[in-house]
């Protein structure tokens, strides 16, 4: 049997109270929220691209243009039913932002890894006058 009472141990260790842990945790949460609000960022082949923000039928897109190629990223949440017009709107967004016509899907290093019909991201080859 034990003759001395066992002192409770704090999981945070000596000198670290739950209040002291709360401040760094709050900082990390605020930082995570701020970083997640940065919006769309380009795929590596589009680093250095010119960004244009386009809104069509109430849906927001970030259009990144580089070397007669466009990457279109849909911003915001849409339900499955609301996503139906998005592929066509992505083509229009690329054309509106660039002033060029979409010639087809991007090829080479600009090719999209997404499946055809992806409503979150699309990459296009542009035909400019």
Can you walk through the features of this model?
This protein is of the alpha+beta class and 129 residues long. 25% of the residues lie in helices and 26% in strands. The chain is built from two helices and five strands. It has a five-stranded antiparallel beta sheet, with helices on one face. The radius of gyration is 24 Å and the shape is elongated. The termini are far apart.
The gist of it:
With 129 residues, the protein is an alpha+beta fold. It has two helices and five strands.
Task: Describe the structure using short key phrases.
129 residues, alpha+beta, five-stranded antiparallel beta sheet, 5 strands, elongated
Helix and strand topology:
Elements: H1 18-36, E1 50-56, E2 59-66, E3 69-75, H2 86-98, E4 101-105, E5 121-127
Mean pLDDT: 83
Structural class label? alpha+beta
* Total number of helices: 2
> Which strands sit side by side, in order, in the main sheet?
1-2-3-5-4
Poorly predicted regions are: none
The amount of beta strand, in percent, is: 25-35%
Measured between the Cα atoms of the first and last residue, the distance is 91 Å
Helix content: 10-25%
Order of helices and strands: HEEEHEE
Assembly context of the chains: single chain
